[in-house]
């Protein structure tokens, strides 16, 4: 009962009514009153309790994945952790995996010939996998829509 | 220093003023002052707070990093951009808007000589916050919060106490990952709050929430710098306007 009732502790309306009725004198008017009236927040600060989620509900927050993640996953599957460690002190550091993933999509400068060959194979394999998945998803979507 | 002992908290966290000075404090002296205050509200960004920071600055200060998916508060879901390998990423577009609103509000409050209180319970940044408050001429309470500080102020500190007009939370959580008592108490005492809400916080009771990271030193340093700059800017502007209008008022800092 108490939890479901929305209650706003701080509200402009409350202060306005207090001033109008005379309970709060003009001299006691808070200095933020005019500022709040002129620049109200995006959302009125009404208290809400966190509602629990029951059962299998879809997560409203989307997962962030990029196209390069597929290539990265394949790279780490084949080569493990990579030849050199990550230098986190440098903000512009490019790891072996990153140069591998970006070098595959465009014609970059220096490329390891051995890695290059494997990349070609990987990309071909990935493209085939993606096409298969797209076909499957196409079928699923038409089923959902129907 | 600020808030070291229980007895000293009284001097630092609340400013005692006599009731007969209340009219002078709120500046309801005459038409001149009212015009000064009313003019400041006409511009959408009177203090140009949007020029103080950019989205790139927020990104570089790691403001977009939230907690893990399991720690997430469902009420923060509208402010979260997405989840990268179970770590929540806060939407910086929204953070920019909220931060602009919050800084604008703080600036106006400081322009009207309001008392601003910085509150946080992160021990790592207690000194930084106290230093920021001192440099901006306002107050800080980064230590243990006694229960009746706001709600029982008249009993604890005597009558004629003047409570803060704005409370800025650098983190709305306390040391046991619950909402800081001051959030609820400020709302009870009709004190507007500006607060940095991380992905594990409840943003609903904060008047001007700012979704962002409250745990990284780079992020907190950025917030402290921005708040300090806005408050000093607003106070300088007030001094300028007073001189312009020929009113001799000294800001007690």
Q: How many individual β-strands of chain A?
A: 0
Count structural domains of chain B: 1
CATH topology of chain B: Rossmann fold
The coarse silhouette of chain A is elongated
Largest sheet: number of strands, sense, barrel closure of chain A: none
Describe the biggest sheet of chain B? 5 strands, parallel
The average pLDDT score of chain B comes to: 87
Q: In order across it, which strands form the biggest sheet of chain B?
A: 6-5-8-9-10
Question: What class would the helix/strand composition of chain B place it in?
Answer: alpha/beta
The end-to-end span of chain A amounts to: 42 Å
The DSSP helix count of chain A reads: 5
Tell me the fraction of residues in β-strands of chain A, as a range: under 5%
The pair of chains with the biggest contact is:
A-B, 31 and 47 residues
Oligomeric state, counting identical vs distinct chains = heterodimer
Total number of distinct structural domains of chain A: 2
N to C succession of SSEs of chain A = HHHHH
Beta-strand content bin of chain B = 5-15%
Describe this structure in words.
The complex is a heterodimer of chains A (146) and B (253). Chain A is mostly helical. Chain A has two domains: 10-45, no CATH class; 67-85 and 93-142, no CATH class. Chain A contains five helices and no strands. Chain B has nine helices and ten strands. Chain B has helices at 6-13, 22-26, 31-40, 55-60, 92-111, 126-135, 153-157, 181-188, 217-245; strands at residues 15-16, 65-68, 80-84, 87-90, 116-119, 139-141, 161-162, 166-169, 193-197, 208-211. The chains are: A mainly alpha (146), B alpha/beta (253). The interface between A and B is large, with 31 and 47 residues.
In short:
Chain A is mainly α. Helix content of chain A is 49%, strand content 0%.
Helix-strand layout with pairing:
The complex is a heterodimer of chains A (about 150) and B (about 250).
Chain A lengths: L11 H10 L11 H6 L29 H12 L16 H10 L7 H33 L1
Helix pairs in contact in A: 3-4
Chain B lengths: L5 H8 L1 E2 L5 H5 L4 H10 L14 H6 L4 E4 L11 E5 L2 E4 L1 H20 L4 E4 L6 H10 L3 E3 L11 H5 L3 E2 L3 E4 L11 H8 L4 E5 L10 E4 L5 H29 L8
Helix pairs in contact in B: 5-9, 6-9
Family (chain B): Belongs to the universal ribosomal protein uS2 family.
InterPro entries (chain B): Ribosomal_uS2 (IPR001865), Ribosomal_uS2_bac/mit/plastid (IPR005706), Ribosomal_uS2_CS (IPR018130), Ribosomal_uS2_flav_dom_sf (IPR023591)
Function (chain B): Required for mitoribosome formation and stability, and mitochondrial translation.
């Amino acid at each position: 009962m108490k939890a479901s009732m929305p209650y706003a502790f701080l509200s402009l309306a409350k202060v306005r009514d207090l001033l109008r009725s005379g309970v709060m004198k003009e001299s006691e008017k808070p200095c933020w009153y005019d500022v709040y009236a002129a620049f109200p927040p995006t959302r009125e600060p009404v208290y809400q309790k966190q509602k629990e989620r029951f059962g299998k509900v879809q997560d409203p927050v989307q997962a962030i994945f990029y196209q390069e993640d597929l290539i990265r996953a394949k790279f780490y599957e084949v080569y493990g952790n990579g030849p050199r460690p990550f230098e986190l002190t440098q903000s512009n550091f490019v790891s072996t995996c990153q140069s591998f993933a970006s070098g595959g999509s465009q014609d970059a400068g220096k490329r390891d010939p051995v890695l290059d060959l494997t990349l070609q194979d990987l990309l071909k394999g990935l493209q085939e996998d993606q096409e298969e998945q797209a076909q499957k998803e196409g079928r699923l979507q038409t089923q959902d829509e129907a | 220093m600020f808030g070291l002992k229980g007895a000293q908290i009284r001097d630092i966290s609340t400013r005692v003023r006599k009731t007969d000075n209340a009219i002078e404090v709120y500046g309801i002296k005459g038409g001149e002052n009212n015009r000064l205050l009313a003019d400041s509200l006409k511009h959408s960004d009177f203090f140009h707070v949007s020029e103080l920071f950019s989205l790139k600055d927020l990104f570089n200060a790691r403001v977009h990093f939230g907690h893990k998916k399991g720690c997430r508060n469902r009420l923060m879901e509208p402010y979260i951009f997405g989840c990268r390998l179970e770590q929540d990423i806060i939407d910086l577009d929204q953070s920019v808007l909220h931060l602009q609103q919050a800084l604008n509000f703080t600036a106006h409050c400081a322009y009207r000589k309001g008392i601003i209180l910085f509150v946080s319970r992160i021990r790592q940044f207690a000194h930084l916050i106290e230093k920021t408050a001192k440099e901006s001429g306002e107050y800080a309470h980064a230590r243990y919060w006694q229960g009746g500080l706001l709600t029982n102020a008249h009993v604890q500190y005597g009558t004629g106490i003047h409570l803060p007009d704005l409370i800025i939370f650098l983190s709305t959580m306390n040391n046991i990952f619950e909402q800081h008592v001051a959030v609820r108490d400020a709302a009870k005492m009709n004190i507007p709050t500006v607060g940095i809400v991380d992905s594990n916080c409840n943003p609903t009771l904060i008047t001007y929430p700012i979704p962002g990271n409250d745990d990284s030193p780079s992020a907190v340093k950025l917030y402290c710098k921005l708040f300090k700059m806005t408050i000093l800017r607003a106070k300088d502007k007030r001094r300028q306007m007073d001189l312009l209008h020929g009113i001799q008022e000294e800001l007690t800092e």
